[in-house]
Amino acid sequence: MRATGWLLIFACAALLLAHAQEEVEGGSTRTILAVEQAWSEAEARGDKRTLDRIFDNAVVYIEDGSLLTKGECLLRLRSAGSHLRQIEAGTALVHIFGSTAIVVGTYREIGVNDGKTVLRRWRFIDTWVNKKGSWVLVAAGSAPLIR
Amino acid sequence: MRTLMLVVLLACAATSAVDAQGDPDSDAASKIVAMEHVWAQAYMAKDPRALARILDDAFVCVASDGKLMTKAQVMGDVKTSTALQILTESMVVHMHGDTAIVMGTFRTRGVEHGKPYARRERFVDTWLNKNGQWVSLTTMVTLTAE
Description:
The complex is a heterodimer.
Chain A: H1 2-45, H2 48-54, E1 55-63, E2 66-68, H3 70-80, E3 84-97, E4 100-113, E5 116-131, E6 134-144
Helix pairs in contact in A: 1-2
Chain B: H1 2-22, H2 24-45, H3 49-54, E1 55-62, E2 68-70, H4 71-79, E3 83-96, E4 99-112, E5 115-130, E6 133-144
Parallel strand pairs in B: 1-6
Antiparallel strand pairs in B: 1-2, 3-4, 4-5, 5-6
């Protein structure tokens, strides 16, 4: 009888712990998706200050065969801003591994090139690390979706 | 004087080597680089078994055409690999606590549909220390200029 009681207590404790873990992960997922959104918006309006906060100093970014550092990402923003009009978020799936998070998703980039509207769809992988309570981007990459 | 300088240089080099050996980040980076080589070997040997330990169950890969692949799909891809030679040109590891980012380039030579090919690709991989074992969570590959 006493053993059954202990079993019930352990089962309840395990359920509570699992629930607490889900709450923490759910909160992190929401935070990361919000930062992803802030990143897209900052890029579209050329907001270097916001991007400086979001990007870790050692961030690396690959796209179209090129590797960019944080400085190069911020510098590119100035030149891209002239023709980049809008970034529309598509799907995004977040996997949390403690203080590391992976986001896999798609987005659409709508820009203007030689007076013509250009639409490109991309798939991305972003890696976030929680440093001192804030999620910062440490690696990212995008590949154009070829149908 | 020249001998003294040489002695000082050798002493400095020896100290750096010892420091590097004792540095946990340096040890972790060496392990991860070794596993990256095992990964390339698996493709050349068409043997996915080594990858089972290296790739996390939630592993995802985005190829240069934007195709998304899971661990099971990558392991299946290894079995039908057309790569005869994979040569890693460079690798740099950035440590962020239990997370490591590896970036680099490699050249692949192989034969596909009876035709030889050679390509150069750039990659960024994310590794995570899970219960003392480093596993890869993601890889992103993009074709790069020769």
